[in-house]
C-alpha cells in the first residue's frame, strides 16, 4: 500500500505542495478512465481543465489534505471554484503549467476569439516532461517488485565475444571477435613457440552483448478492457510508458512505437499515449498486426518484435473496401483466418510476436498458443497486477544475445 502524506501542517495553504508530488497524486486520474466518457464519439479527445480541477480536488480529499475550515466552506458553496479551496487548486494548476507538466490549450474556434474561452472549454495536454515523469514513476513501481536489481541490469548466463568484456575466457574459434586476453595468449605462445602456434591457442575474453531491438507495443483498447468492473487498460498503458522510459534511458539504440487496435488500428505517439481512452470497439487484431509490421519494416535492428497486450478474441476485420466486418461471438472463421495470415507474415519477416493475455477463455488460449508457435514467440497469461513485471523482464531477457 502506498504511503499517504497528510499536509494538515499547511493550515489552509496548499501552495507549498510540489508539482512533482501533485503529479504523483493525480497519476491514476491522468492514466485512467476518469477524464473521458468511454462512449464519447471522440474517446481520445483532450481532457478539460475542469477535469484536471476535479482530479486534484479528489486527490486532496482522498488523502485528507484539505484543512477543515476550507472543507467546510467548500461543502456549503454552490461552486467549489468560487471558494478559497478552489482558488488554491487553481494556483496549483497554474504551477503545473509553469513547471512544464501541462500545456493549456483552446480549440481553434476559441483561439479565433482572442484565445479566450469559457473555463470549462479549455483543454490541457501533457508535455514531454509529464510523459517522462509518468514513465519513470511506472517503471520504478513495476521494477520494485522484481527484487533489488535496478532497471536495465541484465542477469544472464549468456556471453558473446564483443562489446563489454565481463565474461570468462575461452579459446578462439572462427567467427569470434578478437577481444584477446593478452596474458593467457602470451602464456600459450611462450609455452609452444610461434612455430607451433595454432588458432585455438589464441584466448579471448567473452563479453555480454546486447542486441539492438525494434519493438511495437500493440495495445487492445476494445471495450472489454474495462468491462466487468476491472480496468485493464490503465495497467497496460503504465506498462507501455515504463517500457518506453526503460528503452530511452537504458537502451538508447533501440526503438519503440505504440499502436492502438479496436475496430481498426492507428499509431499513437507517446505524447498522446497516457491519455488514450477506451472506446466501444471490437478487436481488430489483424489490423494491429498489419500496421505493426509496416512500422517495423522501416527499422534496421537485430531483433524485431511485437508486444501485444490484449484480453479478447479477434472480432473485427478491415475489408478491402475499407468497411469493418464485425462478429463479437466466438472466433469467426473469416476473422480468424485473416488474423493468422498476418501472423504468418510476421513469421516470414522474422518478427516475433509475444502476447500478454489478460483473460483465460479456452478459445482465446488456443488462439494465443497458435500465434506463439507460428512466430516462435511467447504467450503469458497474466493479470493487470503483474503484467508489468512480465513485460519488462521478457524484454530485458530478449535483449541479451549469444554470438560466437
Automatic annotation (TrEMBL):
SMART domains: VWA. Residues 212-395 form the VWFA domain. SUPFAM superfamilies: vWA-like. It comes from Deinococcus phoenicis. This is von Willebrand factor, type A.
